[in-house]
């Protein structure tokens, strides 16, 4: 395809329709999959750009890429019900593999199984306040309300307070 800016992009698919190669001006990207048709890695001009890893259940556990020469990885953790429980971001030195930086964000769920808290390292939790089957009634950062919603009997928003 040729975009409005005159840049030409080409896409190549296998017989099942999976994207296996894309070309964007001088960049040639190859897309690789495992036997379960899950994306496993992407190369750009022969260099590994990104990798995806999965556990025995088929759940995504890691995504990694190179940024300014450093390996950046996001590790995903799940709870016993298969819900996302944590995201752990790490940055490693390219030659020594020394850990240079890390950050973790945890996720929590209410009794109904709806996501209701995001807890970043060293920062206040972000909490979504809900009622009934999950209608949003507000949001807090730590103990500080950020927004509150008033709704009518049909759950339509009638007032928003900051």
UniProtKB/TrEMBL annotation:
Pfam families: RHS_repeat (PF05593)
UniProt protein name: RHS repeat protein
Organism in which the protein naturally occurs: Escherichia coli
InterPro entries: RHS_repeat (IPR031325), T6SS_VgrG/RHS (IPR050708), YD (IPR006530)
């Amino acid at each position: 395809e040729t975009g409005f800016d005159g840049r030409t992009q080409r896409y190549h698919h296998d017989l099942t329709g999976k994207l296996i190669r894309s070309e964007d001006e001088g960049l040639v990207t190859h897309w690789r999959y495992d036997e379960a048709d899950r994306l496993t890695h992407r190369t750009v001009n022969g260099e590994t750009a990104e990798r995806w890893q999965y556990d025995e259940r088929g759940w995504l556990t890691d995504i990694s890429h190179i940024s300014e020469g450093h390996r950046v990885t996001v590790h995903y953790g799940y709870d016993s019900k298969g819900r996302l429980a944590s995201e752990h971001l790490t940055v490693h030195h390219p030659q020594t593999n020394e850990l240079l930086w890390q950050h973790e964000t945890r996720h929590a769920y209410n009794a109904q199984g709806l996501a209701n808290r995001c807890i970043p390292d060293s920062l206040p939790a972000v909490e979504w306040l809900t009622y009934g089957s999950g209608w949003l009634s507000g949001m807090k950062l730590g103990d500080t309300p950020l927004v509150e919603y008033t709704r009518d009997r049909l759950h339509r928003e009638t007032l928003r307070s900051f």
